[in-house]
Write a structure and sequence with these properties.
Length: 151
């Protein structure tokens, strides 16, 4: 099944990046394959989820509180939040996912992209935080990749 690629600008502050541009339950994520810098995705995971929430002007403590409450898309453990001291830690594991990606040969074929993400966040003060997101890809090939962001 082919999924239509919808391009978007992930750095835009405009409301059209969300539901108007991408549709319900879809988000703009960065992509080198897009002239606008991003494509709409139904997967809202790891650092993408965190950055989208922060772009919506939520505080990092609010985002962690929301994450620690859990959802059908992820579970969190090791959550510790001290709003008064503005410190927090959490580790969230996103449910396994699969979605189609276009092949590289421009032949119209798509391939399953499957994996699991883990997001670890540590806040040590007002607007001082770091997070690490790790992808464990299981299909089309198997590998692990981690990236750390420090602010």
């Amino acid at each position: 099944e082919n999924e239509v690629k919808v391009e978007c600008d992930p750095k835009s502050n405009s409301v059209d990046v969300g539901i108007l541009s991408c549709g319900a339950n879809r988000y703009c994520v960065e992509s080198d394959d897009s002239a606008l810098g991003g494509i709409c995705s139904s997967v809202d995971i790891g650092g993408d989820h965190l950055q989208r929430k922060l772009q919506e002007n939520e505080t990092i403590i609010d985002v962690i509180s929301e994450l620690c409450a859990g959802s059908e898309n992820f579970t969190c453990d090791a959550c510790a939040i001290d709003a008064a001291a503005y410190t927090a830690t959490s580790k969230c594991t996103y449910t396994s996912y699969c979605y189609p990606i276009p092949g590289l040969c421009d032949d119209g074929k798509t391939y399953d992209f499957c994996g699991t993400d883990v997001l670890e966040i540590q806040v040590t003060g007002q607007d001082i935080y770091n997070y690490r997101t790790c992808l464990s890809l299981t299909k089309p090939l198997s590998f692990n990749y981690c990236d750390t962001f420090i602010r």
